[in-house]
Amino acid sequence: MAAKRKRSEIWNHFIVGEDGKSGKCIYCKSTLSISGGSQSNLARHLKIKHPTINLAPVRQEISSLNPQQAASSSAMISITGQQIITNFIHRPPPTRKVELIDRQVLKMVAKGNHALSIVEEPQFKNLVEMIAHCPGYKLPTRKSLSNLILSNVYNELKAKLHTEVRLANAVCLSTDAWTSRANQSYIAVTAHFVEPEQGLLKSHLIACIECVERHTSDNLCATLKKIMYEWEISNKITAVVSDNAPNIIAAIKLGGWRSVPCFAHTLNLIVQKALLEIDNIKTKSKAIVEFFHRSTSGLQKLKETQKQLNLPELKLKIDVQTRWNSTYEMFDRLLKIKDALAVVLPRTKPDLCMTQQDWDAIEEIIPVLKPFYEVTVEQNVTLSKVLIICKILKKLIAAVVSTSEVVRGVLRVLQSEMLTRFSKIETNFLYAESTILDPRFKRHGFKNEDAYKKALDDFKKKFASMQQTESTTVQEVKIFQQNVGTVQPGQSIWDEYDSEFALITSSTNKTVAATRELDKYLNEEYINRGNDPLKWWCERKKIYPRLYTFAIKRLCVVATSVPCERIFSVAGQIINDRRTLLLPEKLSQLTFLHNNM
Length: 597
Description:
Layout: E1 14-16, E2 22-25, E3 31-33, H1 40-49, H2 67-74, E4 78-79, E5 82-83, H3 95-112, H4 122-132, H5 142-166, E6 171-179, E7 185-195, E8 200-210, H6 217-230, E9 237-242, H7 246-254, E10 259-261, H8 263-275, H9 279-294, H10 296-308, H11 324-336, H12 338-348, H13 356-377, H14 386-399, H15 405-422, H16 429-436, H17 449-470, H18 474-483, H19 495-504, H20 507-522, H21 533-539, H22 545-555, H23 562-574, H24 584-596
Parallel strand pairs: 6-9, 9-10
Antiparallel strand pairs: 1-2, 2-3, 4-5, 6-7, 7-8
């Protein structure tokens, strides 16, 4: 029978031996003698071996726990209300416990159909680490997470972004529509603006809402107006970027906003039309890819052949009708494993073998389409880049020389479509002013010198007119002229100078100052293409105060509606087969958080 429990506080850290003449340390399991009745050796042991242990009373009887539980409990002991060092020492858990946790993680992945890569996601890692430091935490219920936590976090973030967007001097919007697999229609709007302090171009999703009404121009215009009013940016819209759908373009014009067609979408239409010249090659290529996607034995032979030929084990990519760049990726991937296909296809599917002329055409088409591909996949293409990109693309197409009639047909269509769709782009004031105000391009962004001169002349007149409107009125000037040279008794000796200064800074002279400011900017050295034009303007906003205000209105305009398309790619992952019953309001909130947190 165990000895009777001792009353001294020292026994919070020791277990009395069965003979009553010894004490066993609950931390290091050392056994110390107390046969003489003295407990000083126990206290000495704690002081030397366990200096961080507090001898004050604890909330629970540690001696009643097993050694492992007691060691864990000791970390909760405090000295005069302060945490002790053991609170910050994280001992590695036992191997058996680690194995159990690993198995539970795997079970969660398998039973919940999660990706194995979830263990590498930063947010999942943060969650596990936070829970490890809060052992008493309990997961919220589904109802609490959906109705309380989600709504609170959404409202907090929306309020924060609302202030940020509302304070912007100018805002460009990009918009697009989408229909989910639950057959629910949504419209997304992304705001692009320049953060004034550091001159950064920021993009935030401000709306991804269900659109239950028909997508007529009137309904779309009303929806856009409602979103602008909610975010208090109705009088700050510089342009609205969208695809080439007639209804959305009509809605933008109906609202009185400047419309910018999506540059990536226009390039897509150009290249898609050019690819019709090699439609038979495209069809053959797609048939090859589809065969290896269906045939497991054929795919296995292809992998083995790639290994035997020391080729990288690459997967074939299939063409998607709505994305021309997927056609480029399909051709490029076929060309990289051409040798392996030449070995496998004759044995498995000889009717799919392409001729040498087909392969030669693909090999010549790839470098022709590569510049279009790079522009399409490039992120954050602003309007100021469009003129220079068109100029480069036209120059590259014109420089290609080919002996293949098929390739020459593709080149002819590309040149014709580029000319048709972008022939008047340099006369569009939005594109022209954006290019002129980009210190990387300015005049060099224009292909036509006459177009540049006319755009610059028009911009000077507009800029001077804006300064005149904001300056002193004509009536005020007349009053200043009357007061010049008439110093009244009791006035300061500086009153006459102040009157003259007011006259000097009148509307006429401010127009001249604005013109000089523009000329000084145009004479500045060009900056490197890799530099940020907004940062350049931010550093010189005191040198060019008038131009800076105008520049951020143009340089915040994006050239594509791709940001909204990316939003719907995320929304498509949220509304999957397991979540088709998710309410539109919840989808809107989750999409908002995903893009803005």
